Hints:
CATH topology: Stationary-phase Survival Protein Sure Homolog, Chain: A
Largest sheet: 9 strands, mixed
Structural class: alpha/beta
Amino acid sequence: MLTLLTNDxxxxxxxxxxxxxxxxxxxxxxxxxxxxxxxxVGHAITFLTPLTAKEIFEGSRSRGWAVDGSPxxxxxxxxxxxxxxxxxxxxxxxxxxxxxxxxxxxxxTVAAAVEGAFFGITSIxxxxxxxxxxxxxxxxxxxxxxxxxxxxxxxxxxxxxxxxIPTRALAGSPRLRVVPMSTARYGEAFxxxxxxxxxxxxWATNDPPPPPSPHDSDVTALAAGDVTLTPLDYDLxxxxxxxxxxxxxWKIMPRT
Length: 256
């Protein structure tokens, strides 16, 4: 099995290194990741300027390819140019910070997995709750257990999954919850400041997630200290509205 490993924190991120070490126990691994941190870029791609890439070495060992672009760019180039053959799975992470709730829509980590799913490859995003001294090695062990069980279920090609690991789950015997993505809004506040020249600027605040709701979701399960697994889909079509809008005839006036 060949795994294409990427992230949005950059090729030198400790979470990427920890997940690479763990994945190599079960798979051949090709690392293709952004050269610098790309957190919050979502599914941005580069097409108006050329992409550059550089092979990174640790001593004489090739560490992988650093792409001067987004996480989605890294996956595209990895599959098209740098992997020795078509990868069996794409894994993105381990991100330093959870990617749950509506943050999934902003996440470069998740976007890299979505890009892999575009190619019809089973793809998995992995994120760990932020901690300045995060235990990425333990998080990688948990991620490998989940990924192994997930693959044993033989998911359809192109399946897309999001794994989140709270800090509390790193100790003891963590529980896995299969839950939907929360759609509660948060993180909308800005702090207004003034620079030395008297000009106002605005800094997005790090608002906490919304309080747990009575409905199970990734946010509520993470608040309880559980590891979460959420199957995702990149088809944004609202099927109910599609059927309603398609009912009847639409009229557009002819040009006069």
